[in-house]
Amino acid sequence: MASAFEWDRLPHDLQRSILLRLPISTLLLCKSLSRSFLDTIRSPTFLDAYSSLRRGRRSRHRDDLFLLLFADCSRHGLAAAYLPSRACWLPLPLPPLLNHIHASDGSLVVAATGKNSGEDVVCDLFSRTVIPILPRMPHSYILALIADEASSDFRIVAVGSQKPVGNALNAVYVSSQVYDSRSGRWQPKGQLPGHYAMLGNAVFLDGLLFVLGRLPDHLLTFDLDSGEWSVVDVALPPPVFCLHLLVFEGRLFLVGGLEEDVVIARIGIWELDLTKSEKEWRLFCFMPDEYFQEFSVNELVHFQTIDRFGIVCFCNTRESVVLVCDLSSKTWWWPPAFGVIPKRRRSWLGHALDLPMGLLK
Prior knowledge:
- The protein is mainly β.
- The chain has 2 domains: 4-56, no CATH class; 62-360, 6 Propeller (Neuraminidase), CATH 2.120.10.80.
- It has helices at residues 4-8, 12-20, 24-31, 35-42, 44-56, 289-296; strands at 65-72, 78-83, 88-93, 100-105, 108-112, 120-124, 130-132, 140-148, 153-160, 173-180, 185-193, 199-205, 208-213, 218-222, 229-231, 240-248, 251-260, 263-272, 281-286, 304-308, 311-316, 321-326, 331-333, 346-354.
- The strands form 6 sheets. A 4-stranded antiparallel β-sheet has the order 3-2-1-24, with no helix packed on it.
- A hairpin with a 4-residue loop joins β8 (140-148) and β9.
- The chain is globular, with a radius of gyration of 21 Å.
- The chain starts with a helix and ends in a 7-residue tail after the last strand.
- This is (wild Malaysian banana) hypothetical protein.
- InterPro entries: F-box-like_dom_sf (IPR036047), F-box_dom (IPR001810), Gal_Oxase/kelch_b-propeller (IPR011043), Kelch-typ_b-propeller (IPR015915), SCF_F-box_component (IPR050796).
Protein backbone atom coordinates (compact mmCIF):
# COMPACT_ATOMS: atom_id res chain seq x y z
CA MET A 1 0.00 0.00 0.00
CA ALA A 2 1.45 3.41 -0.98
CA SER A 3 2.01 5.97 1.76
CA ALA A 4 -0.70 8.53 2.42
CA PHE A 5 1.49 11.19 0.77
CA GLU A 6 1.97 9.17 -2.43
CA TRP A 7 -1.73 8.33 -2.54
CA ASP A 8 -2.75 11.97 -2.18
CA ARG A 9 -0.60 12.88 -5.19
CA LEU A 10 -2.79 10.72 -7.44
CA PRO A 11 -5.65 12.40 -9.33
CA HIS A 12 -8.92 12.05 -7.43
CA ASP A 13 -10.58 10.20 -10.33
CA LEU A 14 -7.75 7.65 -10.35
CA GLN A 15 -8.02 7.19 -6.58
CA ARG A 16 -11.74 6.55 -6.92
CA SER A 17 -11.24 4.15 -9.84
CA ILE A 18 -8.74 2.09 -7.83
CA LEU A 19 -10.93 1.96 -4.74
CA LEU A 20 -13.99 0.90 -6.74
CA ARG A 21 -12.18 -2.29 -7.74
CA LEU A 22 -11.28 -3.37 -4.22
CA PRO A 23 -13.26 -5.84 -2.09
CA ILE A 24 -15.10 -4.63 0.97
CA SER A 25 -12.62 -6.34 3.28
CA THR A 26 -9.78 -4.23 1.79
CA LEU A 27 -11.84 -1.04 1.83
CA LEU A 28 -12.51 -1.55 5.55
CA LEU A 29 -8.76 -1.68 6.09
CA CYS A 30 -8.25 1.44 3.95
CA LYS A 31 -10.81 3.35 6.02
CA SER A 32 -8.67 2.82 9.10
CA LEU A 33 -5.45 4.10 7.46
CA SER A 34 -6.20 7.75 6.76
CA ARG A 35 -8.86 10.42 6.79
CA SER A 36 -8.53 10.72 3.02
CA PHE A 37 -9.51 7.07 2.52
CA LEU A 38 -12.33 7.39 5.03
CA ASP A 39 -13.85 10.48 3.41
CA THR A 40 -13.72 9.01 -0.09
CA ILE A 41 -15.13 5.60 0.81
CA ARG A 42 -17.97 7.00 2.93
CA SER A 43 -19.04 9.59 0.36
CA PRO A 44 -22.51 9.03 -1.20
CA THR A 45 -21.13 9.27 -4.75
CA PHE A 46 -18.57 6.53 -4.07
CA LEU A 47 -21.08 4.27 -2.35
CA ASP A 48 -23.58 4.68 -5.20
CA ALA A 49 -20.91 3.85 -7.79
CA TYR A 50 -19.67 0.87 -5.77
CA SER A 51 -23.21 -0.46 -5.40
CA SER A 52 -23.80 -0.17 -9.16
CA LEU A 53 -20.60 -2.05 -9.92
CA ARG A 54 -21.52 -4.85 -7.50
CA ARG A 55 -24.92 -5.25 -9.13
CA GLY A 56 -23.25 -5.41 -12.55
CA ARG A 57 -20.83 -8.15 -11.53
CA ARG A 58 -22.16 -11.68 -11.75
CA SER A 59 -19.53 -12.67 -9.21
CA ARG A 60 -18.63 -10.33 -6.38
CA HIS A 61 -15.25 -10.24 -4.68
CA ARG A 62 -14.35 -13.64 -3.30
CA ASP A 63 -12.19 -11.87 -0.73
CA ASP A 64 -15.45 -11.02 1.05
CA LEU A 65 -16.64 -14.64 1.21
CA PHE A 66 -17.12 -16.44 4.53
CA LEU A 67 -18.06 -20.14 4.54
CA LEU A 68 -19.84 -20.68 7.83
CA LEU A 69 -19.32 -24.41 8.22
CA PHE A 70 -19.52 -25.54 11.84
CA ALA A 71 -21.12 -24.49 15.10
CA ASP A 72 -19.86 -25.46 18.54
CA CYS A 73 -22.49 -27.79 19.99
CA SER A 74 -21.05 -27.25 23.50
CA ARG A 75 -20.67 -23.48 23.31
CA HIS A 76 -23.78 -21.72 22.03
CA GLY A 77 -23.06 -18.72 19.82
CA LEU A 78 -19.70 -19.75 18.35
CA ALA A 79 -19.16 -20.75 14.72
CA ALA A 80 -16.14 -21.57 12.57
CA ALA A 81 -15.84 -19.69 9.26
CA TYR A 82 -13.46 -20.59 6.43
CA LEU A 83 -12.16 -17.73 4.24
CA PRO A 84 -11.16 -19.27 0.87
CA SER A 85 -9.25 -16.21 -0.39
CA ARG A 86 -7.00 -16.25 2.68
CA ALA A 87 -6.97 -20.01 3.24
CA CYS A 88 -7.66 -19.49 6.92
CA TRP A 89 -10.28 -20.15 9.58
CA LEU A 90 -11.82 -17.57 11.89
CA PRO A 91 -14.08 -17.88 14.93
CA LEU A 92 -17.34 -16.03 14.23
CA PRO A 93 -19.54 -15.19 17.22
CA LEU A 94 -23.26 -15.62 16.58
CA PRO A 95 -25.97 -13.58 18.31
CA PRO A 96 -27.08 -15.65 21.34
CA LEU A 97 -30.78 -15.37 20.45
CA LEU A 98 -30.29 -17.41 17.24
CA ASN A 99 -31.31 -21.01 17.78
CA HIS A 100 -31.40 -22.45 14.25
CA ILE A 101 -30.54 -20.79 10.92
CA HIS A 102 -33.12 -21.67 8.26
CA ALA A 103 -31.66 -19.88 5.21
CA SER A 104 -29.16 -17.20 4.22
CA ASP A 105 -28.31 -14.75 1.45
CA GLY A 106 -25.56 -12.14 1.35
CA SER A 107 -24.85 -11.19 4.94
CA LEU A 108 -28.37 -12.00 6.14
CA VAL A 109 -29.76 -15.11 7.81
CA VAL A 110 -33.32 -15.94 8.80
CA ALA A 111 -33.29 -17.93 12.00
CA ALA A 112 -35.50 -19.31 14.74
CA THR A 113 -35.13 -17.65 18.11
CA GLY A 114 -36.00 -20.80 20.02
CA LYS A 115 -38.80 -19.14 21.96
CA ASN A 116 -41.84 -20.45 20.10
CA SER A 117 -42.34 -22.42 16.91
CA GLY A 118 -42.61 -20.15 13.88
CA GLU A 119 -41.04 -17.13 15.59
CA ASP A 120 -38.11 -16.03 13.46
CA VAL A 121 -35.79 -13.06 13.02
CA VAL A 122 -33.63 -11.80 10.17
CA CYS A 123 -30.10 -10.99 11.28
CA ASP A 124 -27.05 -9.45 9.61
CA LEU A 125 -24.24 -11.51 11.11
CA PHE A 126 -21.61 -8.82 10.45
CA SER A 127 -23.40 -5.64 11.57
CA ARG A 128 -25.32 -7.64 14.24
CA THR A 129 -28.58 -5.99 13.19
CA VAL A 130 -31.65 -8.04 14.19
CA ILE A 131 -35.06 -7.57 12.54
CA PRO A 132 -38.07 -9.37 14.09
CA ILE A 133 -40.60 -10.68 11.56
CA LEU A 134 -44.21 -11.74 11.94
CA PRO A 135 -44.89 -15.45 12.56
CA ARG A 136 -45.37 -17.55 9.43
CA MET A 137 -48.26 -19.94 8.86
CA PRO A 138 -48.49 -23.02 11.14
CA HIS A 139 -46.80 -26.28 10.05
CA SER A 140 -44.51 -24.46 7.61
CA TYR A 141 -40.78 -24.21 7.05
CA ILE A 142 -38.51 -21.57 5.53
CA LEU A 143 -37.45 -22.45 2.00
CA ALA A 144 -35.39 -19.43 0.92
CA LEU A 145 -34.21 -15.92 1.76
CA ILE A 146 -33.64 -13.49 -1.12
CA ALA A 147 -31.78 -10.29 -0.22
CA ASP A 148 -31.51 -7.10 -2.28
CA GLU A 149 -28.34 -5.44 -1.03
CA ALA A 150 -28.86 -2.26 -3.06
CA SER A 151 -32.05 -1.42 -1.18
CA SER A 152 -31.54 -3.51 1.99
CA ASP A 153 -34.89 -5.15 1.23
CA PHE A 154 -35.41 -8.90 1.47
CA ARG A 155 -38.04 -11.54 0.84
CA ILE A 156 -38.58 -14.91 2.51
CA VAL A 157 -40.38 -17.91 1.05
CA ALA A 158 -42.11 -20.40 3.36
CA VAL A 159 -43.96 -23.59 2.44
CA GLY A 160 -46.41 -25.62 4.53
CA SER A 161 -49.79 -27.30 4.84
CA GLN A 162 -52.63 -27.52 7.32
CA LYS A 163 -50.94 -30.65 8.68
CA PRO A 164 -47.60 -31.01 10.47
CA VAL A 165 -44.66 -31.20 8.05
CA GLY A 166 -44.22 -34.95 8.62
CA ASN A 167 -47.77 -35.54 7.34
CA ALA A 168 -47.68 -32.91 4.59
CA LEU A 169 -47.21 -35.53 1.89
CA ASN A 170 -50.79 -36.65 2.60
CA ALA A 171 -52.13 -33.16 1.92
CA VAL A 172 -53.83 -32.45 -1.41
CA TYR A 173 -52.08 -29.10 -1.72
CA VAL A 174 -49.17 -27.38 -0.03
CA SER A 175 -49.37 -23.61 0.37
CA SER A 176 -46.58 -21.11 -0.09
CA GLN A 177 -46.29 -17.61 1.30
CA VAL A 178 -43.84 -14.75 0.81
CA TYR A 179 -42.65 -12.25 3.42
CA ASP A 180 -41.66 -8.83 2.02
CA SER A 181 -39.61 -6.55 4.25
CA ARG A 182 -41.09 -3.50 2.52
CA SER A 183 -44.55 -4.28 3.86
CA GLY A 184 -43.48 -6.27 6.91
CA ARG A 185 -46.14 -8.89 6.16
CA TRP A 186 -46.57 -12.44 4.91
CA GLN A 187 -48.74 -12.86 1.81
CA PRO A 188 -50.22 -16.16 0.53
CA LYS A 189 -48.57 -16.94 -2.81
CA GLY A 190 -49.73 -20.05 -4.64
CA GLN A 191 -50.00 -23.77 -4.00
CA LEU A 192 -48.34 -26.93 -5.23
CA PRO A 193 -49.40 -30.60 -5.09
CA GLY A 194 -48.92 -32.25 -1.71
CA HIS A 195 -46.45 -34.84 -2.99
CA TYR A 196 -43.94 -31.99 -3.47
CA ALA A 197 -44.14 -31.03 0.21
CA MET A 198 -40.58 -32.17 0.94
CA LEU A 199 -38.39 -29.69 -0.92
CA GLY A 200 -34.62 -29.44 -1.19
CA ASN A 201 -32.52 -26.31 -1.47
CA ALA A 202 -33.51 -23.31 -3.59
CA VAL A 203 -31.59 -20.70 -5.63
CA PHE A 204 -32.73 -17.41 -7.17
CA LEU A 205 -31.95 -16.85 -10.86
CA ASP A 206 -33.42 -14.50 -13.47
CA GLY A 207 -36.40 -13.58 -11.30
CA LEU A 208 -37.37 -17.16 -10.45
CA LEU A 209 -36.71 -19.40 -7.47
CA PHE A 210 -35.40 -22.78 -8.67
CA VAL A 211 -36.24 -25.49 -6.15
CA LEU A 212 -35.39 -29.16 -5.84
CA GLY A 213 -38.53 -31.25 -5.41
CA ARG A 214 -37.94 -34.44 -3.46
CA LEU A 215 -39.84 -37.73 -3.43
CA PRO A 216 -40.11 -37.72 -6.42
CA ASP A 217 -37.04 -35.77 -7.53
CA HIS A 218 -37.94 -32.88 -9.84
CA LEU A 219 -36.75 -29.38 -10.63
CA LEU A 220 -39.40 -26.78 -9.81
CA THR A 221 -39.65 -23.02 -10.28
CA PHE A 222 -41.53 -20.51 -8.15
CA ASP A 223 -42.46 -16.98 -9.20
CA LEU A 224 -42.42 -14.85 -6.04
CA ASP A 225 -44.63 -12.18 -7.60
CA SER A 226 -47.40 -14.32 -9.11
CA GLY A 227 -47.10 -17.31 -6.76
CA GLU A 228 -47.00 -19.69 -9.72
CA TRP A 229 -45.25 -23.04 -9.31
CA SER A 230 -44.03 -24.95 -12.38
CA VAL A 231 -42.21 -28.21 -13.04
CA VAL A 232 -39.21 -27.86 -15.35
CA ASP A 233 -39.34 -30.52 -18.06
CA VAL A 234 -35.94 -32.07 -17.40
CA ALA A 235 -34.91 -35.35 -15.79
CA LEU A 236 -32.36 -35.31 -12.98
CA PRO A 237 -29.20 -37.39 -13.49
CA PRO A 238 -29.92 -40.86 -11.99
CA PRO A 239 -29.13 -42.30 -9.52
CA VAL A 240 -28.01 -39.18 -7.64
CA PHE A 241 -28.15 -38.41 -3.92
CA CYS A 242 -27.35 -35.42 -1.68
CA LEU A 243 -28.53 -33.02 -4.37
CA HIS A 244 -27.67 -29.32 -4.22
CA LEU A 245 -28.57 -26.53 -6.66
CA LEU A 246 -26.23 -23.60 -7.19
CA VAL A 247 -25.95 -20.53 -9.40
CA PHE A 248 -22.71 -19.14 -10.82
CA GLU A 249 -22.34 -16.40 -13.44
CA GLY A 250 -26.01 -16.64 -14.35
CA ARG A 251 -25.82 -20.41 -14.91
CA LEU A 252 -27.61 -23.20 -13.05
CA PHE A 253 -25.63 -26.15 -11.68
CA LEU A 254 -26.47 -29.32 -9.75
CA VAL A 255 -24.20 -31.20 -7.33
CA GLY A 256 -24.92 -34.84 -6.53
CA GLY A 257 -23.44 -38.16 -5.50
CA LEU A 258 -23.68 -41.15 -7.84
CA GLU A 259 -24.77 -44.25 -5.91
CA GLU A 260 -23.36 -47.75 -6.28
CA ASP A 261 -24.28 -50.57 -3.90
CA VAL A 262 -25.90 -48.21 -1.37
CA VAL A 263 -22.83 -45.97 -1.06
CA ILE A 264 -21.75 -42.90 -3.00
CA ALA A 265 -19.14 -43.88 -5.58
CA ARG A 266 -18.54 -40.48 -7.24
CA ILE A 267 -19.53 -36.85 -6.81
CA GLY A 268 -20.44 -34.90 -9.93
CA ILE A 269 -21.44 -31.40 -10.97
CA TRP A 270 -23.91 -30.90 -13.83
CA GLU A 271 -25.01 -27.78 -15.71
CA LEU A 272 -28.44 -27.01 -17.16
CA ASP A 273 -28.73 -24.74 -20.21
CA LEU A 274 -31.97 -22.88 -19.57
CA THR A 275 -31.98 -21.27 -23.03
CA LYS A 276 -32.59 -24.54 -24.88
CA SER A 277 -36.11 -25.82 -25.50
CA GLU A 278 -35.03 -29.44 -24.89
CA LYS A 279 -33.33 -29.23 -21.53
CA GLU A 280 -30.75 -31.69 -20.27
CA TRP A 281 -28.33 -31.76 -17.36
CA ARG A 282 -24.86 -32.00 -18.92
CA LEU A 283 -21.87 -33.17 -16.92
CA PHE A 284 -19.61 -30.28 -15.94
CA CYS A 285 -17.01 -32.24 -13.98
CA PHE A 286 -16.46 -34.99 -11.44
CA MET A 287 -14.60 -34.67 -8.18
CA PRO A 288 -11.15 -36.07 -9.08
CA ASP A 289 -10.68 -39.65 -7.90
CA GLU A 290 -7.68 -38.88 -5.71
CA TYR A 291 -9.66 -36.21 -3.87
CA PHE A 292 -12.77 -38.37 -3.64
CA GLN A 293 -10.87 -41.26 -2.04
CA GLU A 294 -9.59 -39.02 0.73
CA PHE A 295 -12.90 -37.16 1.06
CA SER A 296 -14.96 -40.34 1.47
CA VAL A 297 -12.51 -41.85 4.01
CA ASN A 298 -13.75 -45.48 4.13
CA GLU A 299 -17.20 -45.21 2.57
CA LEU A 300 -19.46 -42.26 1.89
CA VAL A 301 -23.21 -42.37 2.42
CA HIS A 302 -23.93 -38.66 2.84
CA PHE A 303 -22.30 -35.27 2.32
CA GLN A 304 -23.26 -31.60 2.50
CA THR A 305 -22.63 -28.80 -0.01
CA ILE A 306 -22.65 -25.02 0.23
CA ASP A 307 -21.56 -22.45 -2.33
CA ARG A 308 -21.26 -18.79 -3.28
CA PHE A 309 -19.48 -16.91 -6.10
CA GLY A 310 -18.52 -20.20 -7.78
CA ILE A 311 -16.69 -21.48 -4.70
CA VAL A 312 -18.22 -24.85 -3.82
CA CYS A 313 -17.53 -26.42 -0.43
CA PHE A 314 -18.14 -30.13 0.20
CA CYS A 315 -18.26 -31.60 3.68
CA ASN A 316 -18.23 -35.22 4.80
CA THR A 317 -19.99 -34.36 8.05
CA ARG A 318 -19.50 -37.79 9.60
CA GLU A 319 -15.71 -37.45 9.39
CA SER A 320 -15.57 -33.61 9.43
CA VAL A 321 -13.64 -33.60 6.13
CA VAL A 322 -13.87 -30.43 4.02
CA LEU A 323 -12.97 -30.02 0.33
CA VAL A 324 -13.29 -26.89 -1.84
CA CYS A 325 -13.71 -26.43 -5.61
CA ASP A 326 -13.44 -23.31 -7.77
CA LEU A 327 -15.92 -23.73 -10.63
CA SER A 328 -14.27 -21.09 -12.80
CA SER A 329 -11.00 -23.03 -13.02
CA LYS A 330 -12.12 -26.50 -11.89
CA THR A 331 -9.40 -26.48 -9.26
CA TRP A 332 -9.74 -28.37 -5.98
CA TRP A 333 -7.99 -27.93 -2.65
CA TRP A 334 -8.04 -28.91 1.00
CA PRO A 335 -8.51 -26.14 3.57
CA PRO A 336 -5.88 -26.11 6.32
CA ALA A 337 -6.57 -27.95 9.54
CA PHE A 338 -8.33 -25.84 12.14
CA GLY A 339 -8.75 -25.88 15.89
CA VAL A 340 -11.45 -23.25 16.27
CA ILE A 341 -13.86 -25.97 17.38
CA PRO A 342 -12.67 -29.44 18.48
CA LYS A 343 -13.87 -32.19 16.14
CA ARG A 344 -16.02 -33.90 18.76
CA ARG A 345 -17.96 -30.63 19.32
CA ARG A 346 -18.59 -29.68 15.67
CA SER A 347 -22.13 -29.60 14.33
CA TRP A 348 -22.86 -28.77 10.71
CA LEU A 349 -24.03 -25.20 10.06
CA GLY A 350 -23.58 -24.81 6.31
CA HIS A 351 -24.11 -21.22 5.14
CA ALA A 352 -22.09 -19.08 2.72
CA LEU A 353 -22.06 -15.35 3.53
CA ASP A 354 -20.34 -12.22 2.24
CA LEU A 355 -19.60 -8.84 3.76
CA PRO A 356 -22.34 -6.22 3.30
CA MET A 357 -21.84 -2.77 1.82
CA GLY A 358 -23.41 -1.29 4.92
CA LEU A 359 -20.10 -1.76 6.75
CA LEU A 360 -18.55 0.95 4.54
CA LYS A 361 -20.90 3.69 5.72
